[in-house]
Each structure stands twice: as structure tokens, then as C-alpha cells.
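Notes from hallway chat w/ T.B., transcribed later so I don't forget. T.B. wanted the structure written out for a chain they're using in a teaching module, and asked if we could keep both sequence and C-alpha cells in one place. Agreed to drop them here.
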Amino acid sequence: MSSTNILLWSVLPYIAISSFIIGLIWRFKYDKFNWTTRSSQIYEGKLLSIAGPLFHLGLFAVIGGHVVGLLVPQNFTDSLGLSHEAYHLGAVTMGGAAGIATLVGITLLIYRRRTTAMVFAQTTKNDKTMYVFLVATLLAGSAATLSSAGVIGEEHNYRETVAPWVRSILTFSPNGELMMASPIAFRVHAVIGMSLFIIWPFTRLVHSLSAPVGYLFRPSIVYRTRDGRGVAGSRKARPGWERTKY
């Protein structure tokens, strides 16, 4: 392979993985208080209530499809009696629906951000860069889906090229020739996707790796008045907690 292909398919994946992991560690250690989505629901909630779930649920389905399609070998599904045609039909149908939902959701979110003055005022250059890479990744992924279905060019079975390449990266034995055998749509999607992973830790996308687990176990918040009524609360204080002194 040429030096460019070696860089793209044998070096860039590890740059993306390293940036993703090291960047997350750095962000959590030195910028923990900005590990947030900077929610703008207070400024506009009607359109967000539609666009937000549409985008997030669609994206979860897209990610799930990638995990199954790239990490589960074809011979495993064959051993289960699932033919390539049936698998391909399900992947294209469900993947297409998830892709459409995600694209519609992100389009509405961008429209909301651009047309709602207070939300737009909170948009940083970092956010705009993130949106460019995210939308480009989704569009390239949609093109790859159409390519695998034969709508664009000839039908292609990515589980014989792209999926083995991904697994070769994860096993530290990169085989870039597999990616070179895939259609251009898959290669463009892979490069843009890896670029997104490089900038991921330094954008608001870090919130996708957080979950409010602590809220399930934290003690209840007891509100007390300052005029002497109900100072002791409506129940006894829990062990280990002192009463508020006024």
C-alpha cells in the first residue's frame, strides 16, 4: 500500500483511539466542571422535546447497528442459520430508519439552535465545529448504507471488508488492504468518523459517556423555612446528618 493508505488505515485509527481515551482522561481530571451538555432547555423546550428524543434514540440505534455489524463475524450469524440476504435486509431497513431519524433530529436541533436567539448566543465555535463533523459523519454513513444496498454503485458486503478491518485494528494487527477493497463511501465515512473521535473529548459530546447514577443513591434533600416553622423538618434527621443551624 502507499504511504497515504498506511497512514489512513493503519495509523489514523490508533491516533483516534489515543486521542479519545487520553482526551477523556484529561478532560475529566482538569475540566470536570465543563463536562456537560450546557443544556438550553430553559430557553426553548417545545422543539427540543421532539428533536432531542428523535436524535438520541436514532443515534443509539445507529451505534447498536455499528457494534453488531462490525464486531460480530459473518460466520457467527451464518452458524445461527441467518442467511446473508436476511441479515442484509434487516441491517439496511433498520439502519436506514435509524439514520433517517438521526438526520431529522440533528437537522431540527441545528434549526432550533440557529433560530432561537438565546440558544444561538450560547453556541460556541467549538459547538459549530462539532456539528460539522457530526453531520458529516451521519451523511457519510447514510451514503455508505445506500452503497451497501446497491443504491449507489454495486451492492457491497461490508462484513467482508470494513468489519474485518475494524477487528484487525482492535487486535493490533491492522490490515488496511481490507479497507482499500471497500467502496469510496465506506472509506470517506471511516475517515470522517475517526476525525470525530479525535475531537470528541474536547466537545460537549463527552456528556454521552455520563449517566446520573449518583442521583439514585444520594440522600433526599430536606427543605426548611427560616421563620422557625418546621425547623426540625417533618421527620427525624438521618444518621450521620446534622440539623441545619440558623
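Follow-up for T.B.: Residues 16 and 195 are 7 Å apart (CA to CA). Might be a good example for the class.
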